[in-house]
Write a structure and sequence with these properties.
This protein has 581 residues and is of the alpha/beta class. It is built from 14 helices and 20 strands. The strands form four sheets. An eight-stranded mixed beta sheet has the order 17-16-15-18-19-2-1-20. This is Methyltransferase.
Length: 581
C-alpha cells in the first residue's frame, strides 16, 4: 500500500517528507501488497515499516526487507505536471501534420527521469467526491489561461482559492444538465440502462462525463496534452474518468466494438478529412447498435453558420459530406434536434456486405490488422466489420445495466482459456478479495478514495466487486497480454490497453488507489521494476495507496524501491491466511 498520510501538506520543498505506505503478504508462495510492503514467511508473520530515512535503522530486523535503499531525488519544480510520453518539451522533435506531435512519444531509456515528481506549491488534499465534481483547489491545477479563455462559456470560474465548475460548455451555455436532458429525449436508451459506457472526444473539463455519472453512464473523457488547458488534469482532479489522447495517426487504446456511445461537442475534429480515418476509428470502437452524438459544426448549420466564420454553402457541403461518409460506413441518422444530431451504428450484416464491392469507399478492412490491435497501431482508411457470428455483441443484445456486470460476456470465449465458468469463478474470487481489502484498508468505499486503477486486470473483477462504492476504476490490460479488455467493456466497465514499460497517459497526482495482481511476475522480464514503481509514484496522489499482489520473489526489490521513494510499509495476510500472532 502506498500511503501518504493525511497530515497538512507543507510547502513544496518539504512535501516529500509525508509518508507513503506499502504492504506485502506472502502465503504459499503468493503475496500481495496493500499500501505498503508486506512480507510473511510460511510459519510466521512479519510486519515492517519502511521509514522516511534513507537507510534501514540499525537494530531493526525485518527479514528480507533489510535492503539498503537507493534514494530518489525530487524532480525540479518545472516537472510538477510531467507527462513523460506526451511532454511538450519534446514536441518540436515531431511533425505538425495531423497533430502527430501530440500523440504518445516516450523518451528513450537514457532520457528517463529517476526522480520523484513534486506537487505544485500550495498543493492541498483534493476535495472529496461528490463535492469535487463542482469545485477543486486552484493550487492543485494552477492554470489561469483556461479560466480567462473559457470564462464566457462557463467551463470554470476562479473564486478565491478554488475553481468552480458551473457545468457550462461551448455547445451548452445553459448548462450541461439541460444539454443531456435533450440528448436523453433523442436517445431513450440513455435512461433505461441500455447505454452504460461512453467516450467523449475533446472533452473540455469533462462536464458532460461528470453529468452522465449521475445518470448511470460511465464515460472516458479524452483530450490531448497541451500547454495551457490541462483538460484531463481538471477532469481527474474533479473525480471524473479521463485519459490523455488524441485521434491522429494511431488507433486509440481501446478494443473494437466496445463503447455504447461516443460524443463530440464542437471538438473541432475534421471528421471528413484524410479519407475519414478519424470517424472510422470512432466506428471501430463503437459497438453495433451504439450511438455517435455530434453537436457543433456542421450540425444545425442553417441557423448557426453566421457564428462560425463561414458561409451557409460551405457548411451545407460539410454536412452533406459528413452524412455521405457516415452512410458509407453503415451509420444511419437516428435523431436530430436543434444543435444535436445522433447517428446509430448499424448491426445488420446486409450493410457491411455492400463493402465487398471493390468500388466502395471506404473499403472493408482486410485481415492484415486485428480489429482489437490498438497499441501504436496506425489508423487505416477502412471499415472494421463487426464479427457477424457474434450474436451478443450488439447493444440491444446485452443485458441492461447493472445486470450486465455479472453476466459472462460472449467474447470471454475468445480469450485463450476463457469460458463462462472461468468468468464466474473470477467474479466470485474478487468479491472475496475486495471484502478482505476493505478490512485492511477501510478507506475503500469512503470518500477518501475516488480515482482507482487496476493496473493489470483480467476481466475487471476488482472493479466489479467495488461497483457499489463511490469510486470508479480504470481497468488496464497489458498490450502484451491476452485481450480481455473487450470483456471488461461488455460487462459495462471501462479501461485501456497499456505497456507498463512506459508511462501511462495521465497527469501526475491523479489516482487515489492503484491495484496490481502479479504485474511484476508477468512483466519484469520486459519492464524494469524501478521505472514501474516510479511511474506509480508519479500518478498517485499524496495520501494515495497501492495494493500489490505479488510473488515473494519480488519482495526485496519492491521494498528497496519503496523505501527510496519515502513509502512506509506494513504487512498483512491474504484473504485465505490465518495470522500467527
Amino acid at each position: 500500500m502506498k500511503h501518504k498520510d493525511g497530515k497538512p501538506f507543507p510547502p513544496n520543498k518539504n512535501l516529500w517528507k509525508v509518508q507513503v505506505g506499502l504492504m506485502v503478504v506472502v502465503l504459499c508462495g503468493l503475496s500481495f501488497y496493500l499500501g505498503g510492503i508486506f512480507c510473511s514467511e510460511k510459519g510466521s508473520f512479519v510486519t515492517k515499516e519502511v521509514n522516511r530515512e534513507e537507510e534501514t535503522p540499525r537494530g531493526n530486523s525485518a527479514g528480507s526487507l533489510q535492503t539498503k535503499a537507493s534514494s530518489f531525488p525530487e524532480c525540479s519544480a518545472d516537472y510538477q505536471d510531467y507527462t513523460p510520453c506526451t511532454d511538450p518539451r519534446r514536441w518540436k522533435k515531431y511533425g505538425l501534420h495531423r497533430l502527430t506531435f501530440m500523440e504518445r512519444h516516450c523518451p528513450p531509456n537514457f532520457e528517463r527521469k529517476e526522480c520523484l515528481v513534486p506537487p505544485p506549491d500550495g498543493y492541498k488534499v483534493p476535495i472529496r467526491w461528490p463535492k469535487s465534481k463542482n469545485e477543486c483547489w486552484y493550487r492543485n491545477v494552477p492554470y489561469d489561461w483556461i479560466n480567462k479563455q473559457k470564462s464566457n462559456q462557463h467551463w470554470l470560474v476562479k473564486e478565491g482559492e478554488k475553481f468552480i465548475f458551473p457545468g457550462g460548455g461551448t455547445m451548452f451555455p445553459n448548462g450541461v444538465g439541460k444539454y443531456v436532458d435533450l440528448m436523453e429525449d433523442l436517445i431513450p436508451e440513455m435512461k433505461d440502462g441500455t447505454i452504460r459506457t461512453a467516450i467523449d472526444t475533446g472533452c473540455g473539463v469533462a462536464s458532460w462525463g461528470g453529468d452522465l455519472l449521475d445518470r448511470g453512464i460511465l464515460t472516458v473523457s479524452l483530450a490531448p496534452r497541451d500547454n495551457h488547458e490541462a483538460q484531463v488534469q481538471f477532469a481527474l482532479e474533479r473525480g471524473i474518468p479521463a485519459v490523455l489522447g488524441i485521434i491522429s495517426t494511431q488507433r486509440l487504446p481501446f478494443p473494437s466494438n466496445s463503447f455504447d456511445m461516443a460524443h463530440c461537442s464542437r471538438c473541432l475534429i475534421p471528421w471528413t478529412e484524410f479519407g475519414g480515418v478519424y470517424l472510422l476509428e470512432v466506428h471501430r470502437i463503437l459497438r453495433p447498435g451504439g450511438f455517435w452524438v455530434l453537436s457543433g459544426p456542421p450540425v444545425n448549420y442553417e441557423n448557426r453558420w453566421r457564428g462560425w466564420n463561414t458561409t451557409i454553402e460551405e457548411q451545407r457541403s460539410d454536412y452533406e459530406k459528413l452524412q455521405d461518409l457516415l452512410t458509407s460506413m453503415c451509420f444511419k441518422l437516428f435523431n436530430k434536434k436543434d444543435d444535436i444530431a445522433v447517428w446509430q451504428k448499424l448491426s445488420a450484416n446486409s450493410c457491411y456486405r455492400k463493402l465487398d464491392n471493390p468500388d466502395s469507399y471506404p473499403p472493408k478492412c482486410d485481415d492484415g490488422t486485428e480489429p482489437d490491435s490498438a497499441w501504436y497501431t496506425p489508423l487505416r482508411p477502412c471499415v472494421v466489420v463487426p464479427n457477424p457470428g457474434a450474436k451478443k455483441l450488439k447493444l440491444n443484445a446485452l443485458a441492461k445495466w447493472p445486470e450486465r456486470l455479472h453476466i459472462a460476456p460472449e467474447r470471454v470465449s475468445d480469450v485463450r482459456g476463457g469460458s463462462a465458468g472461468a468468468f464466474k469463478h473470477d467474479d466470485s474470487k474478487w468479491k472475496v478479495r475486495a471484502k478482505h481489502y476493505k478490512k485492511l484498508l477501510p478507506a475503500i468505499g469512503t470518500d477518501k478514495i475516488r480515482n482507482v486503477m487496476d493496473m493489470n486486470t483480467l476481466y475487471g473483477g476488482f472493479a466489479a466487486a467495488l461497483a457499489e462504492d463511490p469510486l470508479w476504476v480504470m481497468n488496464v490490460v497489458s498490450s502484451y497480454a491476452a485481450n480481455t479488455l473487450s470483456v471488461v467493456y461488455d460487462r459495462g466497465l471501462i479501461g485501456a490497453f497499456h505497456d507498463w514499460c512506459e508511462a501511462f497517459s495521465t497527469y501526475p497526482r491523479t489516482y487515489d488507489l492503484l491495484h496490481l495482481d502479479n504485474l511484476f511476475t508477468a512483466e519484469s522480464h520486459r519492464c524494469e521494476m524501478k521505472y514501474v514503481l516510479l511511474e506509480m509514484d508519479r500518478i498517485l496522489r499524496p495520501n494515495g495507496y497501492a495494493i500489490i499482489r505479488e510473488s515473494s520473489y519480488f519482495t526485496d526489490i519492491v521494498a528497496t524501491m519503496a523505501k527510496g521513494m519515502r513509502w512506509s510499509c506494513r504487512q498483512e495476510d491474504t484473504e485465505y491466511a490465518v495470522r500467527n500472532d
